[in-house]
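Hi support team,

I'm filing this because I wasn't sure whether my run with pyridoxal-5'-phosphate finished correctly. The job status page said complete, but I'd like someone to confirm that the output block is well-formed before I use it downstream. Pasting the exact inputs I used:
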Amino acid sequence: MMPFSYVSHLYCPKCKKEYSPKEKHQLCECGSPLLVAYDLERLKDNLSPEDVKSREPNLWRYHELLPVEDPKNVISLGEGMTPLIKMPKLGKEMDIPNLYMKDEGIIPTGSFKARGAAVGVSKAKELGVEQLAMPTNGNAGAAWSLYSSRADIKATVVMPKDAPVITRNECAVAGADLYLVDGLISDAGKIVGEAIKAWGLYDASTLKEPYRIEGKKTMGLEIAEQFSWNLPDVILYPTGGGVGLIGIYKALNELKELGWIKGDLPRLVAVQAENCAPIVKAWNERKQESEFWPDSSTIAFGINVPKAIGDFLVLEAVYNTNGCAIAVDEDKIVEEQKKVAQLEGSFICPEGAATFLAARRLREEGWIKENETVVALNTGLGVKYPNTVDIEVPILERNGSLTKK
Ligand SMILES: Cc1ncc(COP(=O)(O)O)c(C=O)c1O
Ligand SMILES: [Zn+2]
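And here is everything the job wrote out:
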């Protein structure tokens, strides 16, 4: 019988130590995140792109490349296979005629964090986890709270008090144990870390459990499938912890090993904001790791991460694909968000707007060529951040009238 998952083991990208996926593991003994390996040699003989084609349009269509071994443990709200949309008017304006948006707003919980939560929570359930804890910039906490309640797992979440307000409500309505901290995600991380140590909770922090990245990896699988296994030239990703970028890179390498894609991988671009750009600084200095970015701030709240635990993996993905890292102007993000809505009818999140702004800059600099196919990731709904739009609307008297424009 074909196994549901072809997961083989966990491995450390730093010291190469291996672990079993049948036990709970967090970081490697050496402190590095662990990654999931699959038996791709065997899978190659048993699965083809044709087999996947007729499956349900959600991320579990790639279950062989996901870590959940028993389908009974799948916790799903129908996440995945989000739209890949051509952006003709915006593309024309930016001189990138083949500009696309992968729209992660169209997914349960309104952000791509649903992918990591679906796979991470499903695997936690499979491993017998009853209680988990995590720091978050909002969207991940919301997604993990909601998926955890569906899985009967208790979630404890700590987020900065400045995180998007709606994400608090999502955690609260799901019944999570929620705390706000007067600080950044790094401060939330320290507080959660102490509770985890004291109470023996499962640590669901970014890259401290190996499975969230497997969920996010499906963005890469979907982009490849949606382009009929002919890859775009450039993929831009708003990078905080960088899990999505690491995941896309991992997905593309797995597809290459399976022989489903050929040729050079797309150039991966890590997009950050000018006041929180540790990965960009490291890339400019050709370093393998980043340094803590003090006093970081940006309206694109999800990418306000001053030091990412997986920074070396993000940088590796960027270097190995001849990609780049770019910091965008803070005061142009909202302007770009407005342009996308006015030209293309999509109200995207500020993190997504940062990726379009980066595409615009890279085209101006000639790093992106006119004929190249470019995919910008919109990681969430603009609707989740109502305060980024500052408007004055006329209020009419009951018997008022309109002014012709
Ligand atoms: C909307 C949005 N975009 C991007 C990110 C950054 O994600 P990653 O940790 O994969 O870099 C986040 C993280 O909170 C987010 O909420
Ligand atoms: Zn190690």
